[in-house]
Amino acid sequence: MKRYRDLAILLLALFLMTTVGLCRAVMTTASDSVETQQMQLEVADFNNKAAAINQQSFRPVQPEQTGYVQQDILNLAQGYGLEIMKMQRVANDETGETYQLDISGPWVSTANFLEGFQAKDALLTMRYLSFEVVGGKVQTILQYKIYTK
Fold first, then answer.
1. Domain limits at 78?
2. For 125, phi and psi rounded to 5 degrees?
């Protein structure tokens, strides 16, 4: 009888240890599942926000696309009959590239160029603008920043 009692206690102890181990495994799995769901929600939220930004009409461009933006700006200036005297990059940082464009032409063309200053969907800001009348033409110095992502 004592032998059965010892065997019953041993079986009960094994059962309790197995049950505790299974409970821990279930709790760990549940915890991992909650963390996985949280990470999936965060990734989905990020993707939704990124898609919303990319659908905006004016947004930062990839750094390798700044050449295309520059070409759009040059085409715009030439479309208004402005003479491009000089174009150069003056600064570069983690948020974008700053350029200087020196143009010359009639006041009306210069004003129209500045009013319509944009390049497709790129996010641009004017940083500096100066005018000087030389020989009946307006010489304009424009510094602008092309924002990159």
1. 63-147
2. -135, 145
